[in-house]
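Hi W.,

Here's what went into the run:
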Amino acid sequence: MRFRKFSLNFNPEFNSMQAKEILKQHIAKSALLTDPEFDYFFSHFKFQSYTKGQTIITEGGKVECEYFVVEGCLKSFYINDDMKMFILQFAMPTWWASDYNALYSREKAMISVDCITNAEVLSLSNADREKLCREIHQVEHFFRWRTNKGYVAAQRRLLSHMNNDTKKRYEELMLQYPALYNMVPKHLIAAYLGVSRETLSRLHSS
Amino acid sequence: MRFRKFSLNFNPEFNSMQAKEILKQHIAKSALLTDPEFDYFFSHFKFQSYTKGQTIITEGGKVECEYFVVEGCLKSFYINDDMKMFILQFAMPTWWASDYNALYSREKAMISVDCITNAEVLSLSNADREKLCREIHQVEHFFRWRTNKGYVAAQRRLLSHMNNDTKKRYEELMLQYPALYNMVPKHLIAAYLGVSRETLSRLHSS
DNA sequence: GCGCAAAAGTGATATACATCACACAGTTCC
DNA sequence: GGAACTGTGTGATGTATATCACTTTTGCGC
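Here's what came out:
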């Protein structure tokens, strides 16, 4: 039997209503919104389907939105002058992705975002986020907590990068996201760890 | 003439009123508070003086506060099992420092904070921050923006670490904070860059 | 000013990782 | 089923950086 290694893991039945429920549960973890408040909040999101390989944010372009992943897997990445790619984040369901510097500072994107698998996302524009934050105190609260979580995670990853060798960082990543192993090609995992694909490959044999 | 390389850069006249003004200017950049609101906000801070070498947050201990630097320079750092130190942040005037994971999650500190020079800080407890965020919407707004800035900076630094060699990262740091060169010993700069002091030393000769 | 301790520089050697080159396996598409 | 492409494994070699050991310089208390 043929084993589809990079299975799409994609449910075509997915729709906006299920997405709404997933976002609702997600928000509820750190903010208290009444049902009407949440409905109003949700009305600012656009439900969007992307196919594997599609680009959502392009380096050098404008960034208008941030994206809440409902299904599938995105990556946000940077490509340097030697065309080498570095992955900042794999965005799995209930994760958010964007180029936050570009988004907040109205600058051109330095970071790209694209789809590793087919994906369903909810997009929210910068203008609408700021509007919602102004209008609903608890929304501002939610975004403060979410950003704080991201900040702590980024610091932790930086520390891990300074402190640990490739093998240790790889094991950490697999412990945190076991699903990645069969979902994304190894050279992308290498690009996340910041090593060459060859070095990553050799880890298994040692 | 003897040149005091690690000058204290310390103004004994500094007092709570000047600190208040510095904090006010800092907040005003991203939030709009009325004077009474700011006075109320400020009333939750404690003005504290520390001397060079004093520890503010100890690894393994409780973390109750975050610290706004008014004068001097702090460092937040992690020490690994081999007793090697990694510096997460140099905190200069108008910067904030704490172990944000421990502070938000009520866990024990993994990160320490101490004083590179004599320092004047304003401390704010976690409980008071949350209270103020609840009571004054603009305060929550301020902390969202501040945290977002930190998040973007941490991501940028992670990228720089994956992308650039030591020399480039050193030059970046010196460009961003020229004052550090004469303010902190070189082995601390090495600990920030994540390289050995020997390697940093050899950069100059090449 | 003297003496100790902390900081900084330097040489020799070891090592993790990058890079280049190539083989081959798996997937996709006609 | 075969071609083309993408992904993966592996050997040989080069290089940046760590580590260890030692010396020199600087800062600071007495």
